Fold:
Amino acid sequence: MFSCGILSYNTNYVDINNNEIINCGVGILIDGFSNELSNNFIINSSDSGILYTGGSGSIINNIIQYCGNYGIFTSGFNNYIENNRVSYANMTGIIIADLNDIWNFVRNNTITNSKNGIAVNGYRNFILNNNISDVLLYGIAIFGNDNNEISYNIIKNCHNGINLNDSSNNIVNSNNISNVTSNGIEILGYSLKKPN
Structure:
């Protein structure tokens, strides 16, 4: 188990707000349902800034800097990840980690100076209106899952803008991608879904 700034395990309806957490393994680790994490400042986490497993959670308006792996790591369903600022994540700014994760909303986040921007392993998730810049590899990536939507994101200064790997029926719509060194949108296997 990592050392944690705040640990809340198997708990529901907990609000964790307005904390400053410095130099931990995981800044905030929470497992449960209907929890809210907002307006926290987390810096220098050797693993992840926020690690949330469960459902119906809100991760909103947090500032996360310098993470050994992930800025925000989530596994679950119906979580809202909105208006966070993540920078200097050594692996990925925001990750939806499990293949069975569903109905998560990742909206209006800013991710900079990280290895990757946003990674999605689940299905029927919505990646909307995020601003991703100065990442080493991909801005947004979908790995082997279907029926996700990636729309209205701004992605710049990266290797690949959007990567879809062995995925189908995903919507990729109205994104602004610039200054990539490889491909703006890269589709490897399967297909996209035409927007209505």
User: Anything to note?
Assistant: The domain at 8-188 is CATH 2.160.20.10 (Pectate Lyase C-like). Residues 58 and 80 are 5 Å apart (CA to CA).
